[in-house]
Amino acid sequence: MNIDIVTIFPEYFAPLDLSLLGKARRGGLLDLAVHDLRSWAHDRHRTVDDTPYGGGPGMVMKPEPWGEALDAVVPSGTTARLIIPTPSGRPFTQTLAAEYAAEPRLVFACGRYEGIDSRVAEEAAARMPVDEVSLGDFVLAGGEVAVLVMVEAVARLLPGVLGNADSVSDDSFAPGAMESLLEGPVYTKPPLWRDRPVPEILLSGNHGAIARWRRDEALRRTARVRPELLARLDPERLDAHDREV
Ligand code: SAM
């Protein structure tokens, strides 16, 4: 997969050299390039923002550098899915991460200040798919952290990036058995720690019973912490035991 990130703070993306993502990049599974938006600002101060039309506080990112940046990163005759993080976008979910992981090329546009002049997304949409995406109902100082989150969520779904592909299917929200569910508690050795034993069932070796226990715990935790997710569960996928839990 190819990922391009356009930002005024390229240094923000140094962590993408670490851990799983760094390994994926070095192994050729992920080709990631970070571009400095100011390379497409031509005045002496390499200005990328200006005052908002209609008045009000703060500054807005100018369309010209963004237009030139997107022309250069996605030249005519090529395409990519453009993702613009913004609190006013559609929610970023595991389903969307999986959709992005199936794309050959993603471009992320990091906003700052009060955001990017709205004509940039409009104009780009004439030549490529554009998604305005929110990480949640809160406001960050800039799009860089949001892009780090999205790139990590997408990249760990790429074939070969995780050592054990099964860990993706057991995760919270994973399509299949975990759809709309939060993962329950997890444990490792020792079996007794500070008078707290690991639940007996996990030491039983009975894989069917363990799978049932894990599903029960996922249902209980989801009901307790995110009851609204349970409402989204497809009733067809619930068995009689699920209903008792
Ligand atoms: N004026 C904007 C509003 O109220 O919707 C907030 C702009 S915010 C200070 C600056 C940038 O941070 C945004 O352009 C976006 O790139 C990023 N950002 C802030 N909160 C975000 C969120 N919840 N999800 C995704 N991106 C966010």
TrEMBL record:
The keyword Transferase applies. Residues 1-231 form the tRNA methyltransferase TRMD/TRM10-type domain. GO terms for molecular function: tRNA (guanine(37)-N1)-methyltransferase activity. It catalyses: guanosine(37) in tRNA + S-adenosyl-L-methionine = N(1)-methylguanosine(37) in tRNA + S-adenosyl-L-homocysteine + H(+). Keywords: Cytoplasm, Methyltransferase, S-adenosyl-L-methionine, Transferase, tRNA processing. S-adenosyl-L-methionine binds at G111, L135, G136, D137, F138, V139, L140. It is found in: Cytoplasm. Its EC number is 2.1.1.228. Its main location: cytoplasm. Gene3D superfamilies: 3.40.1280.10, tRNA(m1g37)methyltransferase, domain 2 (1.10.1270.20). GO terms for biological process: methylation. It is an enzyme of class 2 (transferase). Belongs to the RNA methyltransferase TrmD family. Specifically methylates guanosine-37 in various tRNAs. Homodimer. This is tRNA (guanine-N(1)-)-methyltransferase. It comes from Actinomadura sediminis. The gene is trmD.
